[in-house]
Amino acid sequence: MRVTTRRLVAVAAVAAVASTFAATPAQATVKPYVKVGYFTQWGIYGRDFQLAKVQKSGAAARLTHINYAFGPVTADGVCASADAWADWQTPFSAENSVDGVADVEGQPIAGNLNQIKELKAKNPKLRVLISLGGWTGSKYFSDAALTDASRKKLVSSCVDLWIKGNLPGLPAGVAAGILDGVDLDWEWPGSEGEAGNVIRPEDKQNFTLLTAEFRKQLDALSRTTKKRYDLTAFLPASPVKVDAGFEGEIFKYLDFATVQGYDFHGSWESRTNQQSAIFVPKGAPDNPDFSSEVAINKWISVGAPRRKLVLGLPYYSQGWTGITAPGNGLFAPATGPAPGVFAAGTEDYKTVKNLPGFKVYRDLKAGHSWLFDGKTFWTYDDPAMMLEKALYIRAKGLGGAMMWSLDGDDANASLTKAVATGLWTP
User: Which residues form the signal peptide (predicted)?
Assistant: First the structure.
């Protein structure tokens, strides 16, 4: 068997973390780990990333869940589609279809939802959830969660549209059974998200009440359909945001929650840094600082069961340029964000892994790595780092991993395969 440099680095990463952690008997469980990948609705456009690629790359077979992002909450306090063309109208060619058969005019449903249906037919254990909100779709969550009546209205509309499958302009129930539950991506209850979002101090309690209402209505539907529906949530890494918007009681209603394990630092700052380290690196200039360990420990402290915490992993990099300081580029002043294909300062793993002239640097003890060419710096979560983080998840007794987002991986799904390998159970 040929042993590549990448494989040796991966083994070294696993060995480094193994020497740091020792799993307790209580953590030595055979319960399968959750492996959640976000699929972005808009990725079928400029990124040319369809669910067919999730299937062909082998990623679908290695995931337990896909979160379909996003469905916004409207000013009227109901669920809606952000893009009906992408969701259920656009036809897919044979090349871009999961089943290899082109969509035809007059079929009951097309778009991404039909592709999800085809993907699940090939992967019967795969569960797909609608993610509600997101960074740009959370403006009115606070209003919709404000009263008992508004919560019932919101949840009923979400269940009707996304779970019962009553899509506007199509026969009743045309999309029933395609989605398996709801992922709440309210960013953020009680604290700032995108500029202009409605924020109230009451959001903290109301988010708990909203999760309870979703659980109530989903369970009521289960009694009719005899099908179990998942309820999950995307949660922040910042302890300040946790305190402002969340109660430990939410975990009574959630199947699991994904914790943001990235964007700890980024190109909006004037100094290079880690964006997704497991632990705060030695020499970090900020105190207190962010890390996966800081985030997970905060959630545990408010009563979150470890097995309901799923750590988020990035399939993209944060980048800075204009670095002139000597050394390896870490914690160095920069003049601005590095150029990116879709946005300055961010870039997909599949792109940065092929950048010429860069050297890989690894801090295996802190659990992060980066690329540097003497001028430009990119954070770098590659398969070796995914294996290290998977081992952290195992040793910490967590429930699994979440990945944002699947379109950042390479054509061979190298990152997803590394996560699945690290979280394999017999």
Answer: 1-28
**Rounded CA separation 347/334 (Å):** 17
Q: How far apart are CA 70 and CA 184, in angstroms?
A: 10
Which helix (H) or strand (E) element contains residue 257? strand 256-259
293 has catalytic annotation: no
At 177-196, the pLDDT tens digits run 999 999 999 999 999 999 99
Tokens of 76: 């009227």
CA distance 405 to 262: 12
Q: CA-to-CA distance for 352 and 379, rounded, in angstroms? A: 9
Cα angle 188, 192, 195; round to 5: 115
Separation between Cα atoms, residue 268 and residue 344, nearest integer Å: 10
Per annotation, catalytic residue among 118, 187, 347, 388? 187
Sign for the pseudo-dihedral over CA of 284, 318, 329, 393: positive
The CA radius of gyration of the chain, in Å to the nearest whole number, is 21
How many CA atoms does the CB half-sphere of 53 hold within 13 Å?
18
Sign of CA dihedral 37, 39, 40, 44: positive
Say which residues have a Cβ less than 8 Å from residue 95's Cβ, sequence separation at least 6.
52
Residues 6 or more apart whose Cβ sits within 8 Å of residue 356: none
Report helix, strand or coil for 336.
strand
Torsion over CA: 142, 148, 150, 151 (sign): positive
The number of beta carbons lying within 10 Å of the beta carbon of residue 171 is 11
Are 203 and 140 in contact, with CB atoms under 8 Å apart?
Answer: no
Interhelix angle 383-396/5-20, rounded to 10 degrees, is 20
Q: Which two tokens stand for residue 5?
A: 């440099």
Closest CA to 78 of 181, 170, 162: 162
CATH number of 29-317+386-422: 3.20.20.80
- For residue 151, what is the enclosing H or E element? helix 148-158
3-state secondary structure 383-418: HHHHHHHHHHHHHHCCCEEEEECHHHCCCCCHHHHH
Q: What is the mean pLDDT of residues 262-267?
A: 98
CA 102 distance to own-chain centroid: 30
Q: How many residues does the chain have?
A: 426
pTM (2 d.p.): 0.94
> Distance between CA 30 and CA 18 in Å, rounded?
19
Predicted pLDDT at 276: 98
